[in-house]
C-alpha cells in the first residue's frame, strides 16, 4: 500500500459490526470479562483501549514499525522512553534539542541518575567523541529546532551499531510522510503528535514507535507502569487528523518553499534556515534521508525592533508557541520553545533574539506573504 492509501485504510478493517467508516470511540475505563480462565483482549484501559490501539497500530504502520504507543503528550512519550534506561546510564543528545527535552534531561533525569552530553550532531566526530562506556543511546532531531540543522541518520546509526547502543529520533518536524528513521536503521521514533500528525491545533499527544518488538515491549511496560497514556477521545481526534496528513504536508511544504523564495529577497531578513535551500550545509544529507524539506523554517530579522514589529504586527499567522497546525504560526524561540534554556546556553547554540520560526499552515501563501511584507520589506 502507498502512503496515502495507508493513511486512509491502514491496517484497520471497516468496523465488522455496523460498517462504521470512522473508528468507534470506546469511552470505557474497564472491559467486562466473560470467564475466569479466558480474559478478553482488553481489561483495564490504562493497559489498552480499542480506540487507542487503532491509533497505535496506525502510527506503527506509517513509520514502518511493529509497535506504536500513544502518550498524553510528546514530552510524556519522550520521558517514558527515557525510563527504559537506568541510573548510571548516559545519552549523547543533539545540542539544539527541543527545549522541553533539554529541560527534562537537565533538571529531572539528571537527578534520577540518567545523564546527557549535548553535542553538535551535524558533526559525526562530535557524537563519536562523546560516547562513553556507559552511553546507551544517541538522541537526535533532524531537522533540529529552531536552527534546522541536519544530522546524517545512517551515519549516526553506524556509530551506534559499532558501540552496541540505540539511535532515537524525534521525527516531529518531518512526520513519516517525509522521513522514516526506522527504515534508515534507527531504533526508536518519537513524536509530538500535537504538531503535524494531529495537525489541527486541538490535541496534545505523543508517540513512540519501534521496529524491534522486544524494545517496543520495554516501552509498553513503562507506558502501562508510569501511566501517561492518551485518552480515547483524543485518540479519535488524532485518527481523524491523520487521514489528511499527506495533503496537509504537501500543501504546507509548497507554501513554505514559496515563502522562503520571497524571504530571500527581503532586506529585513538576514539569514534563512531551511533544508530546501541548496546553500544549507545539510542540503545533500537531508535530500538523501528525507523526501522533502518540510513546512518549518526559521529566519533572522535584521534587528530586534523589526522582529518585534513583525511578531506583533502579523494578522494571519498566529504569534504563538507550537507548529504543524492548519494555521500558520510564527514563533519566537528565545522566549517560547527555548525559554527553558538559560540565555548563555541559548546564545552559545546560536539562537539569537532576532530569530523567528515559521510553520506554514494551509492559508494561501500569497496572503501570508502580504501579511508579513510591511514588516520585512
Ligand atoms: C512540541 C515538541 C515536543 C513536545 O511535545 P508536546 O506534545 O508539547 O509535549 C517534542 N519535540 C518536538 C520537536 C516538538 O516540536
Automatic annotation (TrEMBL):
GO cellular component: cytoplasm
Highest taxon in the source lineage: Bacteria
Modification type N6-(pyridoxal phosphate)lysine: residues: 195
Gene Ontology terms for molecular function: cysteine-S-conjugate beta-lyase activity; pyridoxal phosphate binding; transaminase activity
Required co-factors: pyridoxal 5'-phosphate
Keywords: Amino-acid biosynthesis, Aminotransferase, Lyase, Methionine biosynthesis, Pyridoxal phosphate, Transferase
A Pfam family: Cys_Met_Meta_PP
EC number annotated for this UniProt entry: 4.4.1.13
Entry similarity comment: Belongs to the trans-sulfuration enzymes family.
Protein name per the record: cysteine-S-conjugate beta-lyase
Gene source species: Geomesophilobacter sediminis
Amino acid at each position: 500500500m502507498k502512503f496515502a492509501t495507508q493513511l486512509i485504510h491502514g491496517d484497520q478493517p471497516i468496523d465488522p459490526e455496523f460498517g462504521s467508516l470512522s473508528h468507534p470511540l470506546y469511552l470505557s475505563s474497564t472491559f467486562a470479562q466473560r470467564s475466569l480462565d479466558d480474559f478478553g483482549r482488553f481489561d483495564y484501559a490504562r493497559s489498552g483501549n480499542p480506540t487507542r490501539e487503532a491509533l497505535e497500530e496506525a502510527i506503527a504502520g506509517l513509520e514502518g514499525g511493529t509497535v506504536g504507543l500513544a502518550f498524553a503528550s510528546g514530552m510524556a512519550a519522550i520521558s517514558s522512553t527515557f525510563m527504559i534506561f537506568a541510573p548510571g546510564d548516559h545519552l549523547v543528545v543533539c545540542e539544539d534539542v527541543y527545549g522541553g527535552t533539554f529541560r527534562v534531561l537537565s533538571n529531572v533525569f539528571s537527578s534520577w541518575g540518567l545523564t546527557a552530553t549535548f553535542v553538535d550532531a551535524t558533526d559525526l566526530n562530535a557524537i563519536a567523541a562523546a560516547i562513553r562506556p556507559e552511553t546507551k543511546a544517541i538522541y537526535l532531531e533532524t531537522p533540529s529546532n529552531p536552527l534546522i540543522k541536519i544530522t546524517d541518520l545512517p551515519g549516526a546509526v553506524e556509530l551506534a551499531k559499532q558501540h552496541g547502543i540505540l539511535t532515537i529520533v524525534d521525527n516531529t518536524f518531518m512526520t513519516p510522510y517525509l522521513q522514516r528513521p526506522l527504515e534508515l536503521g534507527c531504533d526508536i521514533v518519537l513524536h509530538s503528535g500535537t504538531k503535524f500528525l494531529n495537525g489541527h491545533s486541538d490535541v496534545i499527544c505523543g508517540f513512540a514507535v519501534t521496529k524491534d518488538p522486544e524494545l517496543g515491549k520495554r516501552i509498553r511496560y513503562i507506558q502501562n507502569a508510569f501511566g501517561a497514556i492518551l485518552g480515547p477521545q483524543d485518540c479519535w481526534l488524532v485518527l481523524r487528523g491523520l487521514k489528511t496528513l499527506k495533503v496537509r504536508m504537501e500543501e504546507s511544504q509548497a507554501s513554505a518553499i514559496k515563502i522562503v523564495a520571497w524571504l530571500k529577497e527581503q532586506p529585513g531578513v538576514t539569514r534563512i534556515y531551511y533544508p530546501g535551500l541548496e546553500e544549507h550545509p545539510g542540503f545533500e544529507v537531508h535530500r538523501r534521508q528525507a523526501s522533502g524539506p518540510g513546512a518549518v523554517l526559521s529566519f533572522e530579522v535584521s534587528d530586534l525592533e523589526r522582529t518585534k514589529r513583525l511578531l506583533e504586527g502579523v494578522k494571519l499567522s498566529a504569534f504563538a508557541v507550537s507548529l504543524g497546525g492548519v494555521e500558520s504560526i510564527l514563533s519566537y524561540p528565545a522566549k517560547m520553545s527555548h525559554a527553558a534554556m538559560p540565555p548563555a546556553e541559548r546564545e552559545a547554540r546560536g539562537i539569537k533574539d532576532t530569530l523567528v520560526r515559521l510553520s506554514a499552515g494551509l492559508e494561501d501563501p500569497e496572503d501570508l506573504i502580504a501579511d508579513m511584507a510591511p514588516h520585512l520589506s
